[in-house]
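Section 3.1: Structural characterization of target chains.
Under the original work plan, the team committed to producing a structural model for every single-chain target entering the pipeline before any wet-lab resources were allocated. The record below documents one such target. The sequence was received from the expression subgroup and is listed exactly as submitted; it comprises 379 residues.
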Amino acid sequence: MPRTQIGTSEALLEELRGWVLHETPTTDPKAVNGLMDRAEAELRAVGAEVTRIPGRDGYGDNLIARTPGPKGSNQQPVLIAGHLDTVWDHGVLASSMPFKVEGEKAFGPGIYDMKAGSFLAFHAVREILRQKVPTNRPITLLLTPDEEVGSPTSREIIEREARGAAAVLIPEPAGGARGACVTARKGVGRFTIRIEGVSAHAGGNWSEGRSAVVALAEIIGCLHAMVDLPGGITTNVAPVWGGTRPNVVPPEAGCEVDLRVQTVADGERMEAAILALAYERDGIKVTVEGGMNRPPMAEDEAILALYDRARTLAKEAGYDLPKQHRGGGSDGNFTAALGIPTLDGLGCTGAGAHAPYEHILWRDLAPRGQVLAGLLETL
């Protein structure tokens, strides 16, 4: 059993409430940094060695907190990493998604994805330091500002910290009705397609025009034909735009594309196929930008060993911890691709990520936090 006293789920929910009430859309670095400030102050107060890396390109800061680990030990640390940004804009708390508790569920923007998990990671590290609990290795806690848009500014930091780590824990939401952790994830690709056509009057000069919207429709058909469900390959086109008025042959159109794959080889092949959709002929110019954003996280023996340890700790905490392979990507994709043992989905149970009914099963906060603390103590 872990030595760290995590506290009750009721107490954890009350502090988590403050995190949820502090809205942190990815696109507002000042808001994200405000929550970083709160976490930094708490961690410094208990003796963590804190590094704050200023944000760039319109995103918030990254926060790194380190614990000393055993005296005289030069062992590699355990890295635990979570993001503070959410997909929700300012104002949803007041308009459509208030923080509320209804029975076993606690609702609020970002509470499931992934403020509960990031809070539990922060809380476990803080309490290990506050209670002076010995750990087998040093701990590195990394809080990031931009995971919901692909981690454009934090990826380099995540990978740098992971390269020096013995293992990586990702407290993204637990999945499914039984709260499974994640031992494999699909890789993610993102693309933007822009089409230039020729404008013309749709009545009097139709033949002089070249419709960018028609060209886009053809390309969307090609993208949909790339879907291979048995092979684990999907494409999704959204959003889509084009044209100005019904009586004008549209000179411009475009879309964004989401790609999911199970293997690195599939990612390389599909990336090449989507980029090859670009062409210029008969008055139409198609430009395709983008590529693979997150490599696949493939289950291996080292990940399964981490899972076995987590499952043992879960049994001690009074619950079974199943595992699953998940289609969505996370920052765990980056660390696993480096060959660092990574266990994902270690956050709280619940449902509704990115949906108006987003919620956690708040009574699971304490047992889930106990497993995180146990992993940080014993790995």
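The first helix runs from residue 9 to 21.
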